[in-house]
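The instructor's notes for this session suggest beginning with a concrete chain rather than abstract definitions. Hand out the sequence below and ask the class to guess, before any prediction is shown, which regions might be ordered.
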Amino acid sequence: QVQLVESGGGLVQAGGSLRLSCAASGSISSITAMGWYRQAPGKQRDLVATIASGGTTNYGDSVKGRFTISRDNAKNTVYLQMNSLKPEDTAVYYCKATRYSWPTVYDYWGQGTQVTVSS
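After discussion, reveal the predicted structure:
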């Protein structure tokens, strides 16, 4: 099992910045990737950014060049630095961890943190 605790959401004006954190605990040694997803009201949950255990990153098209995902392995924490925020970035942001235990892949989700960007 993996437990994820997110923090750092809040209200910010357009053009501002926020940094989200996701601390992982439990069976973290077998985590292969972590990432952030977001879900706005009435919409599906979409990819924001992921980072693999080797450091490879992947971003959703709408956040490329504005958001940066990083990880601190010593703290078992993943961060999402969000710059140049837009009202359309408003959503609940969820942290996800993927754990591989052959032959099964397990996905774990955090409880979500609200990000609201005002115009």
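Then share the key points. The mean pLDDT is 95. The longest strand covers residues 91-101.
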